[in-house]
């Protein structure tokens, strides 16, 4: 039954594979074993038999991995079969046609339900007949299928190949398995898989796939940086005098480091020194502008079984004095091997992260210090006008955006954004029109190229007398925040007027002050905003 072909000849897909000595992977076999070509035929790519390997079209396979893997941990692979349109696997492992799925061309009437009804013929044969039928119970190397519960419902044979060895298993349309990397050399490797389906006299090849995986002795890590007032978190430009949060994620899907002692050593590159912390999240505030290089070193102390200690042979009496120094060194060596207080030994692994960032001046705070309604004549009293006087701290803004929402601050009613030019003090007046009386949530955002900050308020606009005056009650909600996302804004853009505040006694418009009451209600309506996309995108508009 066996040909002269070896597993490495079959699974290398025509590529030359030199015979090399590898460390054995647990549960795997050498690819120099013979392959049963009569039971598991081999088709080269382009062989016309592929088009008939599956009813209704070709099956494709996708092989995925959670690589990179720290040496000593497990690397996991997942194979998923994708069937032709309108086909799927049922609970019994049969392949059936999906209901209400249009096929092109339509399936024959006698095949309206099953593509492959493997259950029918398996159940119709007795246990002795099925087990004696070697074509449905052995792998390519002749080993029998494992007879665990449900094994006869697994109609696909998966043969994996890597590192000069192979692993074979039966499964359904998707299978997952893991390999320990302790005996795999560091570097990049290829995992290949060949998939066969159950046939009446032989197994039929249906798909192949491969994936690259990496084994490393460096702890794989990813670091994300976040800053409240930063307008574009991906540009590596951050704001002075505002804390930056550094969040470290260790890639350890097999939980190899779960029992390890992990420490994080930070050097933020600004002369503040080294910081050693035990948590994966830390914050740092840069007080100077400039370009900085930050470095992170992660150390993991991994407990492992100790190697047996070889007893020291006693020296002759005459050599005790001469060898005192040597014995002292030996004692020190043994002590260092067993310096773990719980009686175990350990190994050290390290991970490294390095990046450059720029720190600039940014907008740190926005304040609404005054709100005034504008008195208008009866002929002009179509809308109620309100002026908001706004100040900010930090850099000078280049654009301003006003969003009017419902009292819950969840449903946006209108949004207007404009560029502004401020050359000296950050002090400006924003005039806003309200078409009808009611209570509104007002969000005013000032921004520049790298930062933005928000102030919010609730305002009650009441219908005034015949003269058209409008009164409101303003409740200040907060000073420090990044703009929180307030739903999807499907709004038209309008032009409105912005003017520097004037304090001259001869101001043409008569203004009536509004009572303002300070409060910390902002936290109720805006929970720890993490706005990343700039709100201030619109062109100037008129309300």
Automatic annotation (TrEMBL):
Cell division recorded as keyword: no
Organism: Cuculus canorus
Record flagged with keyword Transmembrane helix: yes
GO BP field: cell adhesion
Domain of life: Eukaryota
UniProt-listed CDD domains: PKD
SMART domains reported for this sequence: PKD
GO molecular function: integrin binding
Record-given protein name: Protein QNR-71
Annotated compartments: Membrane
Keywords (A to Z) from UniProt: Glycoprotein, Membrane, Signal, Transmembrane, Transmembrane helix
Domain PKD per the UniProt entry, residue ranges: 258-298
InterPro entries reported in the protein's UniProt record: Ig-like_fold (IPR013783), PKAT (IPR045219), PKAT_KLD (IPR046846), PKD/Chitinase_dom (IPR022409), PKD_dom (IPR000601), PKD_dom_sf (IPR035986), PMEL_NMB_N (IPR059017)
Main location: membrane
GO CC annotation: plasma membrane
Pfam families the UniProt entry points to: PKAT_KLD (PF20433), PKD_4 (PF18911), PMEL_NMB_N (PF26141)
Transmembrane segments: 472-492
PROSITE patterns, sorted: PKD
Similarity-based family: Belongs to the PMEL/NMB family.
Topology in membrane: Single-pass type I membrane protein
């Amino acid at each position: 039954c066996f040909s002269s072909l070896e597993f490495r000849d079959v699974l290398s897909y025509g590529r030359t594979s030199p015979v090399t000595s590898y460390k054995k992977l647990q549960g795997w076999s050498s690819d120099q074993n013979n392959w049963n070509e009569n039971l598991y035929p081999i088709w080269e790519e382009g062989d016309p038999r592929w088009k008939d390997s599956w009813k209704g079209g070709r099956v494709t396979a996708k092989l995925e991995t959670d690589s990179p893997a720290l040496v000593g941990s497990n690397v996991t692979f997942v194979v998923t079969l994708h069937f032709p349109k309108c086909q799927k696997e049922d609970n019994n492992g049969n392949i059936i046609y999906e209901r209400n799925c249009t096929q092109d061309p339509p399936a024959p009437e006698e095949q309206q339900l099953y593509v492959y009804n493997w259950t029918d013929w398996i159940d119709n044969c007795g246990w002795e007949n099925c087990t004696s039928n070697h074509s449905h119970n052995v792998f390519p190397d002749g080993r029998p299928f494992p007879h665990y519960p449900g094994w006869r419902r697994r109609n696909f044979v998966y043969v994996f190949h890597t590192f000069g060895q192979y692993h074979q298993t039966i499964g359904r349309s998707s299978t997952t398995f893991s390999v320990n990397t302790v005996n795999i050399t560091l570097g990049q490797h290829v995992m290949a898989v060949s998939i066969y389906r159950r046939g009446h006299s032989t197994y039929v090849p249906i798909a192949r796939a491969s994936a690259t995986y990496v084994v490393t002795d460096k702890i794989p890590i990813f670091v994300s940086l976040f800053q409240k007032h930063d307008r574009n978190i991906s540009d590596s430009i951050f704001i002075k005098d505002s804390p930056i949060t550094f969040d470290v994620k260790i890639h350890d899907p097999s939980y190899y480091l779960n029992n390890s002692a992990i420490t994080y050593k930070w050097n933020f590159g600004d002369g503040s020194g080294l910081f050693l912390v035990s948590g994966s999240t830390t914050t740092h505030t840069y007080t100077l502008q400039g370009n900085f290089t930050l470095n992170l070193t992660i150390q993991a102390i991994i407990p492992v079984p100790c190697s047996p200690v070889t007893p020291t042979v006693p020296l002759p009496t005459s050599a005790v004095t001469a060898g005192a120094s040597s014995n002292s060194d030996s004692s020190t060596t043994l002590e260092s091997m067993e310096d773990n207080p719980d009686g175990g030994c350990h190994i050290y692994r390290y991970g490294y992260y390095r990046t450059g960032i720029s720190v600039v001046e940014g907008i740190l705070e926005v304040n609404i210090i005054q709100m005034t309604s504008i008195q208008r004549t009866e002929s002009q009293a179509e809308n109620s006008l309100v002026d908001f006087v706004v100040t900010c701290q930090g850099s000078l803004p280049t654009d301003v955006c006003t969003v009017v929402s419902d009292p819950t601050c969840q449903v946006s009613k209108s949004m207007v954004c404009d560029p502004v030019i401020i050359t000296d003090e950050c002090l400006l007046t924003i005039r806003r029109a309200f078409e009808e009386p009611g209570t509104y949530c007002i969000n005013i955002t000032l921004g520049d190229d790298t930062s933005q900050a928000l102030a919010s308020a609730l305002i009650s606009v009441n219908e005034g007398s015949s003269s058209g005056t409008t009164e409101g009650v303003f409740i200040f909600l907060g000073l420090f925040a990044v703009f929180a996302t307030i739903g999807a804004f499907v709004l038209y853009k309008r032009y409105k007027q912005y003017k520097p505040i004037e304090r001259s006694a001869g101001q043409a418009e008569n203004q009536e002050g509004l009572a303002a009451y300070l409060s910390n209600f902002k936290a109720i309506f805006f929970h720890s905003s993490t706005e990343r996309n700039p709100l201030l995108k619109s062109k100037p508009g008129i309300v």
